[in-house]
Amino acid sequence: MPDGLFDAVLARGAVAGAVSDRAWLQAMLDVEAALARAEAAAGLVPAEDAEAIAAACDAARFDLAALGADAAASGNPVVPLVRALGEAVGAPAARHVHRGATSQDVLDSAAMLVARRALGPLLDDLRGASAAAAALAERHRDTPMAGRTLMQQALPITFGLEAANWLTGLDEGAARLEDVRDRRLAVQLGGAAGTLASLGDRGVDVMGHMARALGLAEPVLPWHTIRTRPAELAGALGEAAGVVAKAARDVTLMAQTEVAEVAEAASGGSSTMPHKRNPVAAISAAACAAQAPGLVATLLAAMAHEHERAAGSWHAEWRPLTELLRSTGSAAAWLRTCLEGLEVDAERMRANLGITDGLLLAERVSTELAGELGRMQAHEAVQRAAQAAASTEGGFAAALAGQPEIRDRIPEERLAELLDPAGYLGSADVFIDRALAAHDAREASA
Amino acid sequence: MPDGLFDAVLARGAVAGAVSDRAWLQAMLDVEAALARAEAAAGLVPAEDAEAIAAACDAARFDLAALGADAAASGNPVVPLVRALGEAVGAPAARHVHRGATSQDVLDSAAMLVARRALGPLLDDLRGASAAAAALAERHRDTPMAGRTLMQQALPITFGLEAANWLTGLDEGAARLEDVRDRRLAVQLGGAAGTLASLGDRGVDVMGHMARALGLAEPVLPWHTIRTRPAELAGALGEAAGVVAKAARDVTLMAQTEVAEVAEAASGGSSTMPHKRNPVAAISAAACAAQAPGLVATLLAAMAHEHERAAGSWHAEWRPLTELLRSTGSAAAWLRTCLEGLEVDAERMRANLGITDGLLLAERVSTELAGELGRMQAHEAVQRAAQAAASTEGGFAAALAGQPEIRDRIPEERLAELLDPAGYLGSADVFIDRALAAHDAREASA
Amino acid sequence: MPDGLFDAVLARGAVAGAVSDRAWLQAMLDVEAALARAEAAAGLVPAEDAEAIAAACDAARFDLAALGADAAASGNPVVPLVRALGEAVGAPAARHVHRGATSQDVLDSAAMLVARRALGPLLDDLRGASAAAAALAERHRDTPMAGRTLMQQALPITFGLEAANWLTGLDEGAARLEDVRDRRLAVQLGGAAGTLASLGDRGVDVMGHMARALGLAEPVLPWHTIRTRPAELAGALGEAAGVVAKAARDVTLMAQTEVAEVAEAASGGSSTMPHKRNPVAAISAAACAAQAPGLVATLLAAMAHEHERAAGSWHAEWRPLTELLRSTGSAAAWLRTCLEGLEVDAERMRANLGITDGLLLAERVSTELAGELGRMQAHEAVQRAAQAAASTEGGFAAALAGQPEIRDRIPEERLAELLDPAGYLGSADVFIDRALAAHDAREASA
Amino acid sequence: MPDGLFDAVLARGAVAGAVSDRAWLQAMLDVEAALARAEAAAGLVPAEDAEAIAAACDAARFDLAALGADAAASGNPVVPLVRALGEAVGAPAARHVHRGATSQDVLDSAAMLVARRALGPLLDDLRGASAAAAALAERHRDTPMAGRTLMQQALPITFGLEAANWLTGLDEGAARLEDVRDRRLAVQLGGAAGTLASLGDRGVDVMGHMARALGLAEPVLPWHTIRTRPAELAGALGEAAGVVAKAARDVTLMAQTEVAEVAEAASGGSSTMPHKRNPVAAISAAACAAQAPGLVATLLAAMAHEHERAAGSWHAEWRPLTELLRSTGSAAAWLRTCLEGLEVDAERMRANLGITDGLLLAERVSTELAGELGRMQAHEAVQRAAQAAASTEGGFAAALAGQPEIRDRIPEERLAELLDPAGYLGSADVFIDRALAAHDAREASA
After folding, report:
1. Which of A150, A303, C331, D215 sits at 20 to 30 Å (Cα–Cα) from B135?
2. A7-13+101-347 CATH pick, 1.20.200.10, 3.40.50.150, 3.50.70.10, 3.30.360.10
3. Residue B251, φ and ψ in degrees, nearest 5
4. Is D1 a residue whose pLDDT tops 70?
């Protein structure tokens, strides 16, 4: 669907179609249809007129570019749309088109519809990424790798735990988006100044019918100038983008030539540089996710609407909201691709874990020894061994055995045990179980 | 408590103390105390040692500036704090200080405590502002004023409805913050690489005890690199700040010399310019709230933590999180001051509503007439009257009566009725009721 | 040119075409053409092959949507473009297409071309707005109005001074953009890793030829990972947007129904609400300008490119750079429309200046009196008069004359003089002269 | 000087003292002193009174906390400062304190002084980092390393070229900051509404004297609501922070355990994990630099000041401007520490360059062969060799020699030459020369 020069990277997945101008147009028409029917239900409009209006509300019948061009005079595309819809409907129903509503009612309600529809593919892709992460967590629960802090090897972990971390983040991000979708996307109907004056005493009634018809929440009162709903949506999208960015960052780091622990299935390769396996999906996910913070800030900064309709802050929301849905959705789609096809080199993980020759376990030896020797002396003995390791035949293990305080207290086979990364994983396995259980519970209740 | 040059404006209310460096220090110590006790409960540390540690965890016993200075070497203040705490505790309990934890465990858990404690006064002030808005909504439900769209008078509303808008926004912002506080602020405990390796098989047990002791949620797994929690907190604070900004903007607009519908009780006046009543509280609220979008963006952009501890993105969170709590809290405190003392000039509201001489009701007359005359002809007749109004003795009312199509169809007293703003308020009253009911329900369940 | 639903508002003016995907495509082709010719000049490519390549570099010959679709595999649109260009050129010249360059060279150089071309209409519109502001400053240098601080009337100014403020801001914003355009938009050519290895010892030579051919600066070295140039462009655009936002904000405030000092020529009106003159241009300018801060933040946050090509941060620049040019250009175009047609109601300005009945001049009376009476006593006497003004027949003037200390020291006609706003304008006129002189100097040197 | 819990990390270097509240207070007092003397020079104030005022303008004489507390009533700290200064000066000079100025004049001018003073240490540290980068570029101009694109090894570069990239970025960032410092930091003096009304016809004269006394530029007219100056400062700081972030990112990547090409002199080590050399300075630099984008956005978003003094947007600048100077200065200080002590492991760089066994040079062989064999056939032959390399005794070199088309056309010793990274560095050396020459020229003109 997207056909721009950069869309293959920045507008990936079904989300792009769901936030297109055509999707916006259909959403506006859906709002006009729901309004007419709600007014019929409230006794304000003859049912057959409402149905005539609803029947005309098909985006394929309208010239999008012409509507866009005509929007210049009034400052928004609803004014020309209402005119065109009236013409499409014809007398006598035309006089009931857009009755009692203002442009912002249509655009705000349409924004909520667009958001809900875009959240479909977006959440699908997030869930796809979650499922892939869950599979990795399960499959690699016993695959040891170096845990790295401040980008330095620190202690052993398992790749399963790393994937469980991603899983939990993705699930939390998705849960927050679902919560916003289910509870906070609401119909907007207020009329010219938020009183629904021209609907007399039927305003609230119409609003309720309309909300139900559109599958949107019914607000306490019109939210045309109270922008908590777009703000919560923005915050949830920003959170989801951040979670994607974390996993993508890890993949690009693990895919480095010198680390080579993972590779993408469809890595962007080079025929003459077969060693080069660019993690294109992770890189693109990172690029898309990087759009979010600034767009969230724009939407939050636009919350100070003036009086009953903002002098600019409302118009300022359209583009960043659309773009935030698109870029976050693209980021999720890329991450899904990345994780679904992730090739994991468990052997290389183990090899990398070995490059410090057991020094990652020094702390463990030290702890064991402390019970025997006192913390300070234990620490010093291990430190001497660590410093001697580089120049000792047999490395750290031999150097440890070379320290009398250690040799006398820890038998050789116990020392070997202590230096086995697989034995120093603490709660890694339990954490994986918990992450998978939480994931399964989410899936079961979905 | 705040004593900086700009703190009177930018760090108003109890929130400032709750996010001070001293508050952070106490929170870190509370985490160390809870850790020791949790390890005692898990059988890893003698109970008396845990109590000895907990007894020493009083910020008043530590030299904050010295700890801060010593933080340079390690890059965070926990390393010197653990050392100082060990010294304060003394043998034999000292060896159990900070057992199995890493610096990030202490700082992340402390951040959650600081957030929860800061949300106390922050929510108090938000609720205070809500209560004031509710009182205004109730008191002014029948006070008509001009509804303004794009900063132009559009249709009549009531000031009560305006206040009900603020009320709903403030309540929604507070509800979101409470939700984050109650469900998403969680203890962090992962040890050096997120496995809790040095706690053997007791890691999850300790984490659970600790969460309960601190009144924080227990996470599925350590969240040291999955930053959904700070992100949700940031998003909720940004939303609350935006709601405050909206109300503050309205107050500054309504307080303009030429509008003069409201004034602040403690307006910053000028002895020689008694006409000048600067809405200092609303202005300061706006200034504080304006900090939020950029700070939220900084926190979202910092979500891409590398591996098991970020190379910068974690450290990058400390200042914006603190500042976001402080500035949003200050914004809420200022708005509370503003709304609690807001002086409303209902007479001036009515006068302003009259300056267009009934033209605000033109649409209403047109609608009434349409039933008689057809939409198009009705519209044209009213338009002629509107254009003639300026040069007609008796203004718009007389000009309407001067149009034969109108005079013949709408009796003079009905015309007068149609031009009465109080009769064209639609669902304003119902909306106020709904906002107040929602507010009462919130309060009742609090 | 723009044909989206929201483009009439958010993509106004010629800037939209200048940043379209087609404009990007042509810019990429211009880079390929310049590269081929530069390599011919450097003796690396036969001149006739270079000309054959250049001849094929016409965007009209390429299928933009197909190129965009093919970009998915490689992660950027240059790879399919080079392939398509090679096919268009045919043997034997095809083998010299894109020689020695990498995709980023083409996209970065194209971005600079797009920026320079978009700055054409953008600066035209900024200059148009400046010219309009200059005309207002000159025409209204003697039109007194209320100066407002914190949105309260404070002291008299002239509308000419207000316009001179806008003028200076617009001129400074334009000057900064011109500086970036003239000195900082540079060609990028580095090859696969920034060494231009495959060009042997001719790399710098080719880079120089290419820069001159494209009218871009020649950098010290390739800037593929040193993003000071996009950052400076972003900062300058953000500044220009902010200046537009300031003027737009003032117009919306002055156009309020209750203030009514200005109106836009093509105000968005309502046939039945002739009093309503929505300042659509100012509102749209504000909405467009509001996009800038978040987009600038995105571009700045993307500066930390990894090694010799970023894993995401480079791709993250394309959309916000394009959007920042478009929205800032649209903002400028809207402000130009707004100011060129601005209708100024000098009478209403004077009337508004009078609504505080001379109290705006209280400070002036006080200053005059202080010389006679001492500062404190003078202040108190004027304050008494100010407080009595509301209830005094004849208002503040009479109330002043009613104070013996004042009456005895300031003759009545001098009092009248002191209360004339036109006499208390300080350096307003000189400031206008300075602003106009600076503007004329800019224009003369352009 | 900084004594907060996080200041060791986030407020490093002399910049912290330069933006402290005390520094702000002294800057305000310097403005008051310069104002008094400028008014003396303009004949408005007796010279001895001006000197009495100037003599009292010493921050050590004032109670900062008390001034801060008193700022609540008026909304800014200038009001209590003027009162306290008057008391400190005593009669008769006291009556000339702050004459004709408004609070914003003092705060805006002080902000410019604070900025200029903070830019001193900030630029010192940036220059220190540049000097260190220049030394690395010179020392390592012949140290080959792997150039990495998308975090994958791509082609050989030298570490000297990498350092030259940093150097050029740092120099450009510094140059931009110097330009803003020298041309754009201007005095602000406008009086209550920007007309300098109470200075009669001497306003411009006083402004000029004041500018010269403070070493600030003289603006065309007061810039109290035209915020191009803070905006340009913000943009330049954001750019400098981004440049620092790039170099810091590279250092953290090169310092990874698996890469190990660089280490910091004072790496945060661990006594029991001697392999772990945390690049604390680079990490802290990254954390500080990450503050910039959001703060720049806040300052840009605050540009839409209302009328003659903003209702919030002015107050909203104080904190982010201070924080942006502090965090960017801290980032520069950390990077200087990082680069000045950077330990470079040239042997490891060469070893890493070898891990793909010459495949990085495949493209070069292919190019050489193309002349003999035609592009397509050459490409295929090399590709076959590349694929065979892993399973060929003797690796890629032997595999190449194993292909008849290659063996027959490229002699063995030429093949060895082609596979030597040092021979495929293109313009790397020239680029280093250019970067160093540009750096020297900057230094010479400083």
Report:
1. A303
2. 1.20.200.10
3. -65, -45
4. no
